[in-house]
Amino acid sequence: MKLGNRRYLRALTATALAGVSMLTIVGSSGASARSHASASPVKIGISLSLSGDFSADGQAFQQGYQLWAADINRAGGLLGHPVVLDIKSDASSPTQVVTNYQALISNDHVALTFGPFSSLLSLPAAKAVSRYGYALVEGAGGAPSVFQAGLKNVFDVSLPVADDLMPFAKWVTSLPASQRPKTVAFVTSNDPFTEPQVTTIEPLLRKAGMKVVYNKVFPAEVTDYTSIADAVAAAKPQAVVLGSVDVPTVSAFMQAFEQSGFSPKAFIATGGPDQGATFLKAVGGVKNASGMMVPNAWYGGSANPLSKTMVAEYVKKYGGTASQVSSDVAEAYSVGEVMAQAVKATGGFNNKKIMAYLHSGATLQSVQGPVRFNGLGENVVPTAFTFQWQGAKFVQVNPAGDPNSVKVLYPKPAWGKG
Amino acid sequence: MNAIALLSAAKDGVLTGSVYALMATGLTLVFGVMDIINIAQGILVILGAYLSYALQVHWHIDLFVGLLITTPTMFIVGVVIERAFIGRLKGPEKTAMSILVTYAVSLLIEGALNMIFSVNDVQLQASYVSKSFAIGQVHFGFIYVAGFILAAVLLGSLYVMLYRTRFGMSVRASLADQASAALVGIDVRRVSTITFGIGVAVTAAGGMIYGATNSFNASSSYDLISRLLTIIVLGGMGSLGGAMLAGIAMVFIGDVVGVVWSPVWSTMAYFVVLVLVLLWRPQGLFGRASARVA
Description:
Chain A is α/β, with parallel strands linked by helices.
């Protein structure tokens, strides 16, 4: 029995030693695997509108994401992991964007997700990835409807859109009564990005004594804007506030106004004029673009050092000038920057920890300026600006008093005279 | 309601609607003769616009002069598509299959255009594109008036070709009954190829006017094809006059409702009219139910 016990003990000891050895081997191979994994790529899933209505914006977003990925990889990647972007095209469809994120997470096993273009697609995208516990850091989903959904996983690094037009409203209402436009037209696409902006400033302009001579919403799927633009022109407003998402909408209104012999004293569009070279090409160059205004939080001439570096890289890679860089590029680039800081702060790719960190109130830096999220995922620190084409330059004109703001070109030059 | 705005809306409806009719003509002609629903018509319009763009940007050829090059080019494109894809469709599922095949053709062309021209929006530019003249307080854009005249001339020419020429007689015979046309010696295959070529050729003009009045990229075709299909359904599949009337009706109704009521209801108002017409005449305004039975 004793012998048996000893034999048993020896066997046990041998087994234990073998076990320890095994554990050591497994442990060391595990360490080796971890060491190997530190060089393995980290996949980031993105759905972008590379075709369809938002294809121009989608492509600019792709450039922004790719520019960021190239920069972060040059700097050693995310926690040592090279970044690989897994981009699927959603054809600007709110249905396809859901399918894409499901596939990116379930099939492609991406570690992180970045947002699509536009509020219209960001909301369904955020809902889709929230089911998998993923954070969606995005740069073009700032409509109130995105935040009102009560999601805890969406983080918009850009300016919330509702206040975009406030600097314009403050400027126009601050003009001396003799110079202030006496009449105004509000015409907007029924899009979550545009309507909140227009409805926010409408009472302010009314209160300042500006008479609203046209105030209508048009469906987003309109293909011919001529009759709507003609109706605006027939009302002869001195200021026009156009709720537009893209370049074709703005260019169609501009052309129809010119054909009607109508040129407002002030013309601001919520989207389109910020698309740099694409906008200039579509509207027939600077002679027509001059005087056109657009709200945003960023422009190519931004004094932010991070922005200057990005713009220089962009111009080197894609050509053009700083004025011709689309704001979409900066919005996408900012997404990457914010996620990189969250990954670094949490020490990994755990989406739960990343969301907790982004909700913590930490202030992060981006090419668009500081970023700090409230409980809804809105960026609460950015400043809204108004930009304007003045000749070939795209310049900041509001808020008045800001050291980087120049004088507004007002009244807007007649079409073809800019 | 502003009377000037209402008059302008009516004017826009007629002028712009005629261009949509021109774009839809090829679609209705091809369906009438070949039983083919050409989903690629939208992208072919955009291809026509890009050809004008390329001629203008690279060789500084005027938009209207350029039609002398783009129209025959588009005819050849149509013949090639018909020979390579459409002509191979046979049997009772031909019409249904044509939707899939032409959709595939559409995707191929869209991909090629995106690669060549990028997805950035462009617009055809010329000194007269933004110019207009006024009658009273209603302004008429030169390009829209030119588009209306072009549509009227081309649709008139197609009408003459169909009803005053021997080839037109062959087309009409094929439209009525392909089997009987073949029995009396008509080369239905040849008629089909040429008809498809003509149907695509007219997109050169439609595309040029569209590209001069709208910023566009290859994806613009999706909005176009949905509108073109509803035009030929309302007008009656196979009817040139129906396409003209329905094209004008579509834009006219939308524009006038937009001024009188709100642009939000423009599209819905047109579709209400479409549904009512189809309840009354399922074959469309000028379509012949019997023509499709064979």
